[in-house]
Amino acid sequence: MTFDETVLKNGLTVIGEHNPQAQSFAAGYFVKTGARDETHDVSGVSHFLEHMMFKGTDKRSAEAINLEFDAIGANYNAYTSDERTVYYGAVLPERGAALVDLLSDMMRPALREDDFTLEKNVILEEIAMYEDRPSFKVFEEGNARFYGGHPLGQSILGSPESIRALTQTQMLNYFRARYASDNLFLVVAGHYNWDAVVAQLEALTGDWEPSGASRLYPELSGAVGDDRVSLPTLARSHTALYAPGVGAGDPLRAAAGVLATCLGGGSGRLYWALLDNGLADSASLSHDAADGAGVFVGYLSTSPAEQAAALSSYRAVLTRAQDEGVTEEEWRRAQRKLATGLTLRGETPFGRLMSLGVRYQQEARYVSVQETLKQIESANLADAAELLSRRPFDAMFSLTLEPEGVPGAQPGSKPTENA
Amino acid sequence: MTFDETVLKNGLTVIGEHNPQAQSFAAGYFVKTGARDETHDVSGVSHFLEHMMFKGTDKRSAEAINLEFDAIGANYNAYTSDERTVYYGAVLPERGAALVDLLSDMMRPALREDDFTLEKNVILEEIAMYEDRPSFKVFEEGNARFYGGHPLGQSILGSPESIRALTQTQMLNYFRARYASDNLFLVVAGHYNWDAVVAQLEALTGDWEPSGASRLYPELSGAVGDDRVSLPTLARSHTALYAPGVGAGDPLRAAAGVLATCLGGGSGRLYWALLDNGLADSASLSHDAADGAGVFVGYLSTSPAEQAAALSSYRAVLTRAQDEGVTEEEWRRAQRKLATGLTLRGETPFGRLMSLGVRYQQEARYVSVQETLKQIESANLADAAELLSRRPFDAMFSLTLEPEGVPGAQPGSKPTENA
User: Fold this and answer.
1) Which chain B residues are closer than 8 Å to A19 by Cβ?
2) Phi-psi domain of A225 (left: phi exceeds 0; alpha: psi -120 through 50; beta: other)
3) What is the gyration radius of the CA atoms in chain A, in angstroms?
4) Do the beta carbons of residue B339 and residue B375 sit within 8 Å?
5) CA distances from B156 to B48, B72, B136, B238, B281 (A)
6) Among all residues of chain A, which has the CA nearest to that of B346?
C-alpha cells in the first residue's frame, strides 16, 4: 500500500491509497458539511441536497446518472451525517475513470426548481418512514435533548415544517458556500494509476472555486438525567443514552474506543448484565469521536415493564467501571477485537475508502491501517484511568420512548427542546 | 485461489478456498437445518438451539466461550434461516486454529436444563423486540399466508406459545437428529494450511456420528391475492409481496436474479415508478432461490393513504414486464451490477465464506466466483422470456400491515393461517 496526495490549483485535494493487488477500485467525494453546519431555518438542507445531487447536471439528466452508475456496474450510494456528506462507489478497476467522471460531474448539479419541488415529497416520505423505526427516532429526539443548542444535536432529516418551508434559493446558497473546492476532497482506493487520476481531475474540476467555508465549535455542555416520552405507536421501550466522551483529535480517543468495547461490545459487561439473562433485547455502548467533541452513546431496548430495572442495571455497569476501572484481561480482549475488525474492514478498497476519508477530514493527513492498529495497541489502562477520572458516567443522560400507559412517562408530543 | 475438500471417516465434510495473500482467515459450520425442518410442535427450535450453542460445552462454560472469542479477537456471529443454521467467525491467520477449535467444541453443546430454562426468556424478549419492527413482522406473517402449509412458511423465531411449551427433551432429540456429522459441514476461507486443518478436525470430531437426516420437499402452491391486516402500533403501511420463482438447482436461477435486478434493483423500474416521485419510501424486488423452491420477494412501504395506489403501480410494473419483457440494455446493466457486487463480496475470506457455504449446501460442489460470474454473464433475454412465459406475476400475493382506520383493512389480530 502506498499513499498519494495532490492539491490541485483550484484548492481541491485528492488522496489515494494504492493497492496494485486489489480486484476493485473505490472512489468517493467527502464534503465537509452536514447537519451541524446548518442554521435552524434550513434544517435538513444537507440531506435534501444529497438527494438533489442525483437529479442531474448540465450534462446529465437524473435518469442518465442512474443508468450510467448501472452501466459501469457500480455499487454506489451516498450518506449525510452531522459531520459530512459522502458520495461513493466501487467498480472493477477498468471502469474507475468512468466512476470518477460521473461522481465529479454530480458535484456540480443543476439544482433545477422542478426537481427541487418534486424531491420535497421524497424527503417528506423518508421522514415519515422513520415513524415506524423507534430505534432511529429515539436518537433523533435524544440528540436534540442531550446536545441542547449545540450544532451536533441538529436533525439530519429536518422536520416536515423545515423541509416544506425550504426554498430553492436557500439550497443554492448553501450549496455554493459548502460544496466549494476547498470544502470537499476526493478519496480513491485500490487499483489505480495516480497520474491518470490527477490529470483527469484537473480537466474535470478546473472551474471549481474555493469559498473559505468554515465550521463552528461552540462549547458542549450535555444534558443530564433521565427523560421519558410516551408514544401511542410503540410496543417496546427504546432508550438512547449519552455520556461525555473525547473528540477526534484527542490523544485518549483510542482508549475511549477500547473502554466502550469492554463495556458495550458483543460480550462486554452490558451483555452479561442485561442480555444474557433476557432483561433487555439490546444493550450496547460505543464511543463516537466527532470533530471537536466526543460522546459515549448507548442503546437499550426492553419490555415496558422492565425498562426501569434495565436502565438502573445499565447505569450500574457504567458507574462501577468508572469507580473501579476494567481489568487488564478485559482491556486486552477489547483491543484484539477492535484490531481484527479493523484488519477485516481494511482488506478491501471499499472498506478503506471510508476510514481514509473520515480520518483525513478529521486530521488532514493519511492514517494507515498500521497506524490505527498501533494506536489501539498502545492505548492502556492508565489512559482508561485518566478518562474515567473525569467521571463521564456521572453526567449521563437518557431519553426513553415508551408505549402509553407506563407509569411515570410524560404524555409526550414531539420532544425537541433541551431538557 | 484453490479449492480443498475432504470427507472425514465420520462423514463430516470440510471444504476450503485457499488464498495465500489474504490477511485473514474465516471459518463457519453450516448446519443443514432451519425453520423448514421443524414440526409444528417444536416451532422455533432451530433458532432457540442456535442460542443454546453459545451456552457451554463439557469443556467450556458460556462465559468461557464468549471470552475466548474475544481473546482471539474474533469477529463472530451465528444466524438461523428457513434453510440453515450457521456459526462463523473471522480472525487473523495465526489464530485460525484457535477459532476452529472453539467452533468445533461448540457443535457438541452441553444443553443444560438450567440454561435452557433461562434462555427461554431471551428468546421471548427477541420475539417481543420484533413487535416494533414492522418491516420484519410483515414477512413473518406474509410467509405464513403465502406458503400456507409448506415448510418454507414456518416462523424462524416461533411463537411465544411454541417457545413456552418447548421441552429440553424435544430440543435434545432435534439436536441429535440434525447436528449429526453428515448433516453439517465446515467451511474455511483465506490464509490456511489444509493438512493442518484436516488433522485438527480429525482430532476434534472423531466421536461425531452420522444420523441420516433428511428434508421434506412438498409441492409449493403459493397463495394469490391481496390481504390486509390492521395493527394499532403502526404509523405507515408495510407490504410484503410474493410471486413464484425458481429453486436453487434450476438452470434459470441466474436469469431470475438478473430479472429481479432489472425491476427491483437500486435504479430498476420500481425505482422510477414509485421512489423517484415519492409515492413510496421503499419499493424493492429480489429473487430468493431456496432449496427446491424459489420465490420473487418484494417490499413496499408507503403512507397509509397512498398504499392502494402504490400497490397498484407496483403490480403494474411487474405485469408490464411479464407481457413485454425488458430491454437488452436493462439486462446488460443488471448483469454488470450483479457482477461487480459479486466481485466486491469475493475480495475477502469472510465474504467468500458465506457464498461458499450456501452454494455447497445447495449443490454439493465448489462454485467459484469465476463460475458464478459466468452464470450471470451467460443468462440472456431468451432465459428471461422462458421464465416470464410461466406468468409468475399473474400469481402474486401480498400482505399489507397498516394502521387502524384505513378503509378496507380487516380488524386483524395475528394472521397465521393461509389465505
Assistant:
1) none
2) left
3) 22
4) no
5) 9, 31, 12, 20, 27
6) A23
B278: nearest CB among A121, A282, A301: A121
Interface test with B, best of A132, A239, A270, A279 (most B CBs within 10 A): A132
Contacts of A275 in chain B (CB under 8 A): 122
DSSP letter at A307 equals H
Name the H helices within A168-273.
168-178, 194-205, 253-264, 269-270
Nearest to B348 among A74, A132, A347 (CB): A347
For A259-314, write each residue's pLDDT tens digit. Answer: 999 999 888 999 999 999 999 999 999 999 999 899 999 999 999 999 999 999 99
Does B62 contact A303 at a Cβ distance shorter than 8 Å? Answer: no
Q: What is the pLDDT of residues A313-363, one digit of tens each?
A: 999 999 999 999 999 999 999 999 999 999 999 999 999 999 999 999 999
CA distance A366 to A3: 7
Single-letter amino acid code for the residue at B13: T
Q: What are the grid coordinates assigned to B323, written together?
A: 407481457
Q: Which residue has the cell 394472521?
A: B415
Q: What is the 3-state secondary structure (H, E, C) of B176-190?
A: HHHCCCCCEEEEEEE
One-letter amino acid identity for B228?
R
Strand order across the beta sheet in which A85-91 lies? A2-7, A13-18, A184-190, A25-31, A85-91, A75-80
B118 touches chain A (CB under 8 A): yes
In A130-193, where does DSSP find H-type helix?
134-147, 160-165, 168-178
> Does A129 contact chain B (CB < 8 Å)?
yes
Interchain CB contact of A339 with B (< 8 Å): yes
Of B62, B333, B343, the CB nearest to A67: B333
